[in-house]
Write a structure and sequence with these properties.
mainly alpha, transmembrane, membrane, elongated, hydrolase activity
């Protein structure tokens, strides 16, 4: 049921040709870079960003350490769930890849035989970015920037329409945010139990980070200094 426009003059197709046309004018080496970045690199970058956020958070500790780690665990789980939700969506829409219905595209990745709407890559990256934003806005904004770059790469590579990417962004964000309260209700007690164990506490907080420690670096030292001055 290919209900989305696949031919004729429309902004979706026009933007597809505009963005993909950049690949024709770019050097061969740049296209290869975009291919690997769009297919694998940004996905790996999102995973590393989540790990970086986890590493920084566990060193700070704090009363909300368990809930923060639970939210970070939810980010990749949300991405996986969003991809599962996308399976029936793709089967219902049945939109062919753009290079199957439009001539003259510079296709950088071969072997794509499944349907186009919505983009799995866009869905995964935005779901992880949205989950990351809930934990830490700075890391989350950087993740959103990576997700936007992923969407651009998918159109640049000639394997998705712009609306495929927009749909993926919407799906990933919806799954990550709408199901976040339920996920947190289930994952936070698990992380608190891990934090209280002798062998798994390092997952939630570093050895030097106490429970209830301030999440603001240096706040404890400032409070001690104020007490000394008052004395």
């Amino acid at each position: 049921m290919a209900v989305l426009a696949e031919s004729g003059s429309n902004p979706d197709v026009d933007l597809l040709y505009d963005i993909n046309g950049l690949a024709k004018d770019a050097p061969h080496w740049f296209d290869r870079v975009m291919e690997y970045v769009g297919e694998y690199g940004i996905l790996l970058g999102m995973v590393l960003l989540i790990l970086w956020c986890w590493w920084a958070g566990r060193r700070r500790g704090g009363e909300d350490a368990a809930s923060s780690v639970a939210a970070l665990v939810w980010a990749p789980l949300a991405a996986a769930l969003a991809v599962l939700v996308n399976v029936p969506i793709r089967g219902f829409v049945e939109r062919p890849r753009p290079f199957r219905t439009h001539e003259g595209l510079e296709v950088l990745v071969s072997g794509k035989t499944d349907y186009s709407f919505v983009s799995d890559h866009a869905t995964i990256t935005m779901a992880m970015a949205a989950g990351l934003f809930v934990v830490n806005r700075k890391f989350g904004l950087f993740g959103i920037a990576l997700a936007l770059l992923e969407g651009f790469c998918r159109v640049y590579m000639g394997v998705h329409y712009p609306t495929d990417v927009i749909g993926g962004f919407a799906l990933g964000t919806a799954v990550a945010l709408l199901l976040s309260p339920l996920a947190m209700a289930l994952l936070t007690p698990v992380m608190k139990a891990v934090e209280g164990s002798s062998k798994g506490a390092w997952i939630v907080r570093a050895r030097g980070a106490e429970r209830g420690a301030s999440v603001i670096p240096g706040a404890r030292q400032e409070a001690a200094a104020e007490r000394d001055l008052a004395a």
